[in-house]
Design brief:
With 475 residues, the protein is α/β, with parallel strands linked by helices. It folds into 3 domains: 64 residues, Winged helix-like DNA-binding domain superfamily/Winged helix DNA-binding domain (Arc Repressor Mutant, subunit A), CATH 1.10.10; 110 residues, Aspartate Aminotransferase, domain 1 (Alpha-Beta Complex), CATH 3.90.1150.10; 240 residues, Aspartate Aminotransferase, domain 2 (3-Layer(aba) Sandwich). The protein is 36% helix and 15% strand. It is built from 14 helices and 16 strands. Strands 4-11-10-9-8-5-6-7 form an 8-stranded mixed beta sheet, sandwiched between helices. The protein has a 4-stranded antiparallel beta sheet with strand order 12-13-16-15. Strands 1-2 form a two-stranded antiparallel ribbon. The chain is globular and about 85 Å long. The relative contact order is 0.13. Pfam families: Aminotran_1_2, GntR. In the C-terminal section; belongs to the class-I pyridoxal-phosphate-dependent aminotransferase family. This is Transcriptional regulator, GntR family. Keywords: DNA-binding, Pyridoxal phosphate, Transcription, Transcription regulation. One of its GO terms (molecular function) is pyridoxal phosphate binding.
Length: 475
Amino acid sequence: MDLHVSLVGRRDLAGQIYGQLRAAVLDGRLRAGEALPPTRELARRLAISRNTVGVAYDRLAAEGFLTSRVGAGTFVRETGSAARGASAASPLRPRGVWEGVSVWPAPMPGIRWDFRAGLPDVRLFPYEAWRRIMSGVLRPSGLADPASAADPAGLPALREAVARHVGVSRSVRASGADVVVTSGVQQALDLIVRVLLEPGDVVAVEDPGYPPVRMLLAAAGMRVRGVPVDAEGLRVDALPGEARAVYVTPSHQFPLGMPMSLPRRRALLDWARRRDVVIVEDDYDTEYRYGGRPVEPLQSLDEDGRVLYTGTFSKIMRPVLRLGFLVAPPSLHHAFRMARYVSSWHAELPAQAALARFIDEGLLARHIRRSRREYRARHERVAERVAGLPGDRLDLVPSEAGLHLSALLRDGADDAAVAARALGAGVGLFALSEFAVTGRPVAGLVFGYGAVTPPEIDEGMRRLAGVLRGRRGRS
């Protein structure tokens, strides 16, 4: 262990060393089995006599805090002490808004059949290819340009690769200069709030919608207004006139799943132009489209440069790879770069470099093609199994994209209670009412199929059928 001892004055040095080491053992900073520095090394570091350190060590050993092994060194003994936290008597208190913020989704212990939305199947990821690329990146020559690492907008190679990828796969108009690398859509939205909005501004979001977005906006001092959606997506006629920004998921509405119709998209762009409003387009999983005509993003229809386009790679690749991006017009390049700089500077550089190579070598496109085939089969299987659930109680919301499907409960049942009973049977899924913003919650269930295999889908749905019949299902 690299032990740092601060000595005040020169009296009773052995006592000071003893006291600080004893306190470190008791409050858990030094753990059982951890090696202490040799007396010679610690004495040299502190510029004191080796005998002084030896006296402190001997006293601690006599009291049962340390043990010595010939030829091995001096180690901390088990004391049964737990780590001590910071002082509970602090007068510091958070702003009131943080009292109402909690992690979403809440933990779901006991899941065996995981239908939670938004989870990809990490088993489909090409680990060998990624490991090869990461090994190359981590060599001394892997990040050879120190100047590129200083750009808070991200590595130029990744920004160029992202621009090409979204241009081909999503019809987004962007150059590398328009791309800011983020740690995900949440950080992209945080940057947008910092750059374009003021505390107290009204931000319109889809209702139902993604809970962490409204949490972030509320924590930043925004006034969040839910706007209802229908079969064509966000209802433009219900947008609040005082809104300064609109957050939408037009390619695959989250969580219901329908795309925003072309007339509705054009109406939203026209509304935003007339009222000088910024549109935040979250295109979180559009690579996974299984049928119908491709949906043109708002960003490519936008002629005024007021759509800020965001995306993430966590749904395509792995959730632990926290990399996303923001596409912004030239008028905002400097501001976003500086906002990125003052908040967190840049995302992890080795991962950025590896992702750039992963895209440039065609591996991302290949992975999307392969995983799309698998997810299409799961999409169809879930749709069939939902249609066959007992009692004719669920109406499936039409959707041809993404990693989840939603279904409405016809009889207005308590969907949270259904989800809780399902969890008791080992089936994890979300109640649709969890996603309500300001309007009346819609009762239903959300079925994610990214993390479940086809056999798991069949068994999970069998157990859910038992729940809907009023029993837990046979184990």
